[in-house]
Amino acid sequence: MSRKPVVLITGASKGLGLAATKILLDEFGAIVVALSRSETVELTDLKQSHTGALLIIKGDVTDKDVVAHAVDSTVKTHGHLDALILNAGILTPLGKIAEVPLEGWKSHFDVNFFSLITAVQAALPHLRKSERGGRIVFVSSGSATKGTATMGPYNAGKAAMNSLCRTLGEEEPDVVSVALRPGTVDTPMQIQIRELGATAMTEKVHKYFMGLQTDSKLIKPEVSGYVMAALALEAPKSMSGQFVSYDSEDCAPFRK
């Protein structure tokens, strides 16, 4: 059984999750269990170059049994669980609140919020016992505090995530919970915004996101991914329950 830090991360196959997974393996020497709907070429390559240090479990975070299996497999294989990074999330549906069907909201919350509860409940008994001190990193967004038009489900889901993090900070003294704003990162989600936004977003909002790319203002996944990884292993108790930005003074010790 390993005594290296063991981290379970969701949504690890691409973008921010993939960057954080690579950093945990390469720069922190951690053992990573990646829960993802798909196994990309990049994730497979990581597994081949980190034999024994990366376990990939394919499945949907909305499936309670899959999440329970991921946590159980982590502990059975490595003996313990030290951190949980909740990164899996979706953007859609886009549209005005008056127009998005209720079923769209429910589907969105199944992925972006209710899956968090499933993972937290499954992992907490093990995180409480971590010799390093258990940690949970919620990958949030600036949208949690905004009211960006046509992004109602996403805005609300991230706000609910932050609330969950705050409450865990009060309820779980032996586990550090942090919600991280990673900034606007150059990931497949941004590509989706640019592609769908022309028809689903207001012109003002779509123009804003298009401008981030054309003006080269998108953040590299490795920048925010490093903060995610470092917080998962080293976030202090004083941070528990907080919503912090990757570029804030609080996160300065966790930036490369």
From TrEMBL:
Pfam families: adh_short (PF00106). It comes from the Eukaryota. The keyword NADP applies. GO terms for molecular function: oxidoreductase activity, acting on NAD(P)H, oxygen as acceptor. Keywords: NADP, Oxidoreductase. Signal peptide: none annotated. Residues 5-188 form the Ketoreductase domain. Belongs to the short-chain dehydrogenases/reductases (SDR) family. This is Ketoreductase domain-containing protein. It comes from Rhodofomes roseus.
